[in-house]
Amino acid sequence: MDASVIEKFVNDLDTAFKAGDPHAASKASETSCVEALQGMYRAAVRGDIAAFLGALAEDVEMENVGPESIPFVGRWSGREAVAAAVARNFAWLEDQRPEVLTVVAQGNTVVVHGHERGRFKPTGRPYAMHWVQLFTVRDGRLARFRQVFDSAQMVDAVAGWKPQ
């Protein structure tokens, strides 16, 4: 993934969090959750497994909700399983162009609404999707992650592909 694209995406998390809320800067708990999320994203994209694992709670849970035909739909628990799933999921995609549309943070919960374009590597077909990611942060680490996405174009991108 293009480093400048991901850096813009990560920086836009903070910008979107502060947008429309003149009191956002005074929300210390929410700000620290958004910062934890930024660190996790940066580590994942850099492929820095040690930093990524360090950003996750030991009992982290991750779920991608969508049709079973999409290979990165599923549930995982624990640092190692989540890290392996994230690495595998990123490996299936290329030319990713994520865009932050909205960030809402309340207490230890951060909700990110975004849009992404890219290509599913095994078929070479493009996709575009809107998604919502819900994060729970505990003690500065990601404890729960759930993603729900508009899957129509992703279903088309993976059509006919069979895992080896």
From TrEMBL:
This is SnoaL-like domain-containing protein. Residues 38-144 form the SnoaL-like domain. Pfam families: SnoaL_2. Keywords: Isomerase. The lineage of its organism: Bacteria, Pseudomonadati, Planctomycetota, Planctomycetia, Gemmatales. One of its GO terms (molecular function) is isomerase activity. It comes from Gemmata massiliana. PANTHER family: BLR2505 PROTEIN.
